[in-house]
Structure formats: C-alpha cells, structure tokens
Specification:
- This protein is an all-alpha fold and 242 residues long.
- It is built from eight helices and no strands.
Length: 242
C-alpha cells in the first residue's frame, strides 16, 4: 500500500498541485509572478551564483529527460553500449549537478549573508531552498553511490525509467520502485515535492517567457482633452474587476 501511494498516487497529486497552482497564480496573482530580484542589494555573488545554477539546472533537466524517457533499447539500436551510456551520463551529469549545486549554494549563502537580501527573504523561500538543495544533494549522492558500486549494481534504466514512463500512460508499475536504492527514492520524493511547490514560490518565474517584449513599442502615448474622463475599458491589470 505504501509503494502504491508513493509511486502510483503521489506523482499525480504533485502534478495536479503544480497545474492548479500555476493557473491560480496566472489568474489572481499576476503581479506577484516574479523572482523578486535582489540585484540592487548585492550583485557580485549574484553574477557568479545565478549563471552556475541556471545553466547547471538546464543540463541537469536535459540529462533527466534523456535518462528517464529514452528506453535502453533505443540506445542499443544506435550502437551505444550500456557502459558508454553510463560513462557519458555520469560525466556530463556530474559536471552539471556540481555546477547547479555550487550555484544554489552561493545564492543561499548570499541570501543569508547579505542583510538586505535576508530581509527580503520570504517564508516560502526557506521551504523552497530546503527541497531544492535536498533534491540536488540526494541526486548527486545517488549518482556517486551507484557509480562506486555501493548500490549492488542497480540499473535505474531497468527500474526507475520504465516506472517513470508509465506515469505518462497512467499505468505506473509501482513494484518497480520497490527495489530502488533509498537515495534514488528520496531524490524522487524531494523532486515531486519541489514540483508541487513551484507555483507557490519564486520558482514560478520559470514559466514566464517574455515574448511580447520583442514586439511591443518602446513608449505608448495617449492623449485626452482636458476634462474628458478616462476610458474605463482601458483599465490596467490591477484595476480590472472580474
């Protein structure tokens, strides 16, 4: 029953909270949809930590997509042996993971070391940083343990990957997760919890793509005769009523 709840129910609950929270934020909290930039308070550490974290996370996500969504039979079909795949995944994943972990470490240090940035820290930030750091540390730990043979030769491509792909067809085999090492299980649990927290934290900004900025005019002028009332149909976003 526990395995069913953790690996057959929890992922869908996490995704449901992610979708519902994102829709709610977009509908009722558009002006809170921001990273709450603190660059004015301190920029030296930010210039180092932010690129490390963001570029590191980009490659970490890409690595997870390749490792979890591409079946072993596909890589075998193109002549990529399991040993070569493992070396490629570990080498690139370790570099990306270390870069992302170093970046978030610098950002957390900055947030609690710089008084002005610390005062701007929200309660949700503490929870978000806990699960973000936890997921990253557990992921690196699982990689190291698996690479050094501490997990008795466990192959996540035969256990975790098929289970994960089953989530998309609503047929996840939760029994496959029963034999996964503890570090992998904790990494996944922290990851899904982090997904559920995204809409309720500053991480929601990852869904913002400022495409309109490419096409908007620099300045918009509107003229009005003295004494003429403003057109109430042109209310700004924070003035609109549902």
């Amino acid at each position: 029953m526990t395995d069913l709840l953790l690996w057959g129910v929890l992922p869908y609950v996490s995704v449901a909270l992610l979708i519902a929270g994102t829709v709610w934020r977009a509908r009722y909290d558009q002006f809170g949809w921001t990273t709450r930039s603190s660059q004015l308070h301190e920029s030296r550490l930010l210039r180092i930590g932010s690129p490390l974290f963001h570029f590191g996370m980009l490659f970490v996500v890409l690595g997870h997509v390749v490792g979890l969504l591409i079946p072993r039979s596909w890589t075998d079909a193109v002549g990529l042996s399991d040993h070569a795949y493992h070396l490629l995944a570990v080498s690139t994943g370790a570099v990306a993971g270390v870069a992302a972990a170093a970046g978030i470490g610098i950002l957390v240090f900055r947030r609690f070391r710089v008084p002005a940035v610390r005062r701007a820290t929200l309660k949700s930030d503490h929870l978000m940083y806990t699960f973000l750091l936890g997921a990253m540390v557990l992921g690196l730990t699982a990689t190291v343990l698996n690479s050094t043979g501490a997990t008795d030769g466990y192959n996540y491509r035969e256990g975790i990957s098929p289970w994960f792909r089953g989530l998309f067809t609503f047929q996840p085999d939760h029994h496959l997760m029963a034999g996964a090492p503890l570090a992998f299980k904790l990494h996944i649990l922290f990851g899904f919890t982090l997904f559920a927290l995204i809409p309720y934290s500053r991480l929601v900004h990852m869904f913002s793509v400022p495409v309109k900025y490419l096409f908007r005019p620099y300045v918009v002028y509107r003229s009005r005769k003295p004494g003429q009332p403003a057109n109430r149909e042109d209310r700004r976003g924070w003035e609109r009523v549902s």
